[in-house]
Amino acid sequence: MLEDKKDLLKDNSPRKKAMINNQFQSLDSIDGVEDISQENAAAYSGGRVILYDGKNEGGTSLSFTTGYVSNLGKYGFNDKTSSIEITNSQRWQFWLNTNFRGNSITYGKGKFNLQGIYNNSISSLSRTR
């Protein structure tokens, strides 16, 4: 259902609109378009990994959906990770040094408290296949 551009531009409602064939159309009227939560969006895109600076998913968190991070220092999170949550069935590998160097540990879906040398020592990570 296409509406006149002038009418839509006057409309201050929060409805989502798309321009199709040089006319605006409400996205609510398009089959298959819906709002989804961040969690669902992450799951649809391949999931995410969430790093926490506290045990048991506590404290400050930082999440990634991209396949790799070569230096957590760029995000102010180098050597701060104490627990990890992985929201999909893919596996993630975590290194003690930047640029995927040094000892590493790999986890799949779940929630994990880091132990031993890995606690507060993660500097880079990547999704594995």
Question: Can you put this structure into words, describing what you see?
Answer:
This protein is mainly β and 129 residues long. Helix content is 10%, strand content 40%. The strands form three sheets. It has a four-stranded antiparallel β-sheet, with no helix packed on it. A four-stranded antiparallel β-sheet has the order 6-11-8-9, with no helix packed on it. The longest helix has 7 residues, at 38-44. The chain is globular. The N and C termini lie far apart (44 Å). Mean pLDDT is 78; it is low at 1-20.
What number is the mean pLDDT? 78
The CA-CA distance between the termini, in Å, is 44 Å
Label the structural class: mainly beta
Helical content stands at 10-25%
Strands across the major sheet, in which order? Answer: 5-4-7-10
Please state the CA-atom Rg, rounded to the nearest Å.
21 Å
What's the number of helices? 2
Low-confidence runs of at least 5 consecutive residues: 1-20
Please write the string of helix (H) and strand (E) elements: EHEEHEEEEEEEE
Biggest sheet record: 4 strands, antiparallel
The gross shape turns out to be globular
Could you tell me the strand content as a percent range?
A: 35-45%
